[in-house]
Amino acid sequence: MKKSNILALVLIAVALGAILSMVGDFSSYETFATAEQKPGKEYQIIANLDTIENKMMYDPIKDPNHFTFYAKDESGIIRKVVFNGTKPQDFERSEKLTMTGTMQNGEFKCSKILMKCPSKYKTDQVAVGKTS
Amino acid sequence: MDTQFLNEHLLPGKIGELFTIISFAASLIAAISYFLSAQSKVDETHSSWKKLARSSFFIHSFSVFGIFVTLFYLIFNHYFEYNYVWTHSSKALPFKYLLSCFWEGQEGSFLLWSTWNCFLSFFIIYKKGKWEAPVMTMVSLTQVVLSTMLLGLYFFGEKIGSNPFTLLRDQMVGAPIFQQPNYLASILDGNGLNPLLQNYWMVIHPPILFLGFASTLFPFALVVAIMWKNDYEDFILPLLKWSLFSCMILGTGIMMGGAWAYESLNFGGYWAWDPVENASLVPWITMLAGLHTLMIYKATGYSLKSTILFFIISFALVLYSTFLTRTGILGETSVHAFTGEGSSLFYHLLIFLFLFFIIGLFLFFKNYKKIPDLKKEEEALSSREFWMFIGSLVLMISVVQITYTTSMPVWNKMFGTKLAITNPIDHYNKIQIWITLLVLLGTATIYYFKFKESNMMEIAKRIAIPLVLSLIVGGLITYFQSLKSIPVAALMFATLFSVFANLMFIVRTLKWNAIKWGGSTAHIGFALMVVGIILSSYNKEVISVNRLGVDFEMGKKTEEENKKESRENLLLFKNMPVTMAGYTLTYVGDTVEGPNHYFRIKYQTRQDDTGRIKEEFILAPNAQINPKMGLISSPDTKHYLTHDIFTYITSTVDKSKMKDTVSYTSQKMKKGDTAFFASGYMIFEGFNTEVNSKNYIAQTGDIAVSAKLQVYNLEGLATPTSPIYIIRNQQEEMIEDTLSSYNLYTRLSKIIPDENAAVIEFKQPSAMNDYVIMKAILFPYINVLWLGTVIMILGFLISLYKRIKTK
């Protein structure tokens, strides 16, 4: 066998090894229940904003980096979520939240929220006005 | 009965539709006749088919251009009866952004791609070389597929493509508004362009990127052509030129995207390993790999097979990236994933991808034995070709890893899993950092190796100086920039090694023969880019640390880091200075210009001893509340030579919802007494009976007294204010004084002569109501990244020039 082939094989093995070693970086979207079992471990949770029974709290004058709300995950569990950032614009209108964070003392502390709003990119309503 | 609609402009749309159909038909004829021309063994039929092919391709190009012009005409004239115009533009859009409307929509971007293909094809046709017929067959076939994207016709109940000339009333069938014949009168304005695209980079970045995408077709078509014709002569030079051009343009396009992200998006950087970014990066890397193996083939006769494969993969990856970004499959993983146009586009793009990938692979395996390859003897480990080949393989590892993770949504869809990465940036960085390190070591040393065999002792001698230099300088930078991570420090060393070794190579070997500088220059540029990336991202610092509120357990090692992580947003009340990282920041006001809302933040630095202002500038980040997309915040950046201060708004108050609910506080004050308010305090210094104020016009019989108040901010800076008390016609009157810099209102409501005291009423209302929340990030040495980019592109340009000069 030629040297280049051997080296190529070694490189491919390294590449595969590297990819396999990173399996730990991947996680499924989880629920609050799983996150509760391992406090401190980072999870991604898909949930809906719950505003019916619980209120969201954001007082930027007191602390602009503290925003709390309640979210209901896919299994139906509702937990308080604490986000260390500003309240995203139109948060009330979000349909679905993808939150990254850890569970601590029954609260989900999250550092990243991706929100899906209705009609964020798609527009199916015509803005109608009167000609003046 | 059909309604007769009024005031519609249907003619241009009809013309446009006609163009789309002609462009499709003509490309089909061009593809078939080029194919027949390429297949024919007889000279006469070859050239007669080619003649037909050329004219149909010309008609096709003319129609594509016609579609472009017609669509622009519609957008320019604001004909909102057309869905595309209504969806992607509005009347207020400045002229320069009317072009950006093309790349916002799916139809427009396919059109742009198609236009570039036509444009680039003219270089092939103009050359009239032996590759014209087979290469143009592949190009025309691509154009056939791209034209179907614009057809918007129904075949067997499936809609194929999406026509940019569809009328709004046909798009939204049944909407009540279309029951009025004069519906256009109620559509006052279009939906407008996504505000994030209203940036000058967005005028120029997409066309360049699409030119880069389009250019990958030509190396692909050339390698298909040589395999198809089984003719392995006279292809190296054109292939070299096309791949150099493609690397140069695609590289420029990608980095312009980075510049746009840095200037108008607020994730705080130029690269986020976002799937859309990755999808454009990956074909560039494979193109680079192909370019390098082609150089090996040119010099030694090895590696043609890998070259062919790399160019096939590059084009397939461009198609794959279109598939990823356009079908909406990326869904939750990307900020700028586009919504899909339904399942027909999904399969349409999938067919596009597999059609070309299979053509390439089929020819490759069919002719595997015929593709020239040297019967190798044991190759020398001291040869340039060996290490260049290894370098290309290393690039491919990078491609495999990026593609694997980016495709996660595809794997999820295929296997029904629901996997995602929690921290993409770390995930990519920890592998790519080592790959970049290997690549840099390669770029540093490769020119010191000779093809076939080199003298290792000589190489060692020649690279000794740059090696020692980079160890010293790398050590110094590591120490002074406190790079506390071993991989990062190692990478820093490798970049410097590459810079010094290539500089040395230019100085000692190439000398003033500048036309040969291309490769070394590109390598230096790339290394400098990595230097810029390391310095700007490793020591990137959020300087807007808030001191209010509670801390968060952010999972960091130290308390200090926790604090930092959880308090990155700073609240600024209007006109109340706050200190931050050596600057005094004041939110001084806001302006609305069209859809944009600029918040002016004054940065000041003072001399330590005298307190004199050393430096002052205003940053005006834009934050508009968009009805569709929420808060759209674009940063404003102060550029220094050595660092940037990047500032953006993370939250604002909606002033329309505010009410002035603050009431006056009343306090009895004797001379020398102090009253406190939120942002400072004031001292009563006594009465003044000689009232002289612009607020007060004296009348006869007035008794006027003013209170002398000195207002101090928390730093002890004093400003006087004097509210006035008048008795006029036996009536009490008060003239309020306002101190706008504090937003402080004061009144002198009563004088108590016995005690020589005054009752002062004061309030500081809207200071608490008018504020912004912002974030500021310091990017050190980011200019090195931009400088490196320019140098790298220049390197490609020199190489391309050299190849064009070669006859």
Notes on the structure:
The complex is a heterodimer of chains A (132) and B (807). Chain A has helices spanning 3-21, 32-37; strands at 26-30, 43-50, 57-58, 67-73, 78-83, 96-104, 107-116. Chain A has a domain at 27-116: Beta Barrel (OB fold (Dihydrolipoamide Acetyltransferase, E2P)), CATH 2.40.50. Helices cover 19% and strands 36% of the residues of chain A. Chain A starts with a helix and ends in a 16-residue tail after the last strand. The longest helix of chain A has 19 residues, at 3-21. In chain A, strand 3 and strand 4 form a beta hairpin. With 132 residues, chain A is α+β, with helices and mostly antiparallel strands. Chain A has a 5-stranded mixed barrel. In chain A, 29% of the residues are buried. With 807 residues, chain B is an alpha+beta fold. Chain B has 4 domains: 1-193, no CATH class; 235-421; 559-657 and 771-782, no CATH class; 665-763, no CATH class. Chain B is built from 22 helices and 24 strands. In chain B, the strands form 6 sheets. In chain B, strands 15, 16, 17, 18, 19 and 20 form a 6-stranded antiparallel beta sheet that branches. In chain B, strands 4, 5, 12, 13 and 24 form a 5-stranded antiparallel beta sheet that branches. In chain B, a hairpin with a 2-residue loop joins strand 1 (153-155) and strand 2. In chain B, helix 17 runs parallel beside helix 19 (486-510). Residues 549-557 of chain B have low confidence and may be disordered. Chains A and B meet through helix 1, strand 1, strand 2, strand 6 and strand 7 of A and helix 15, strand 3 and helix 17 of B.
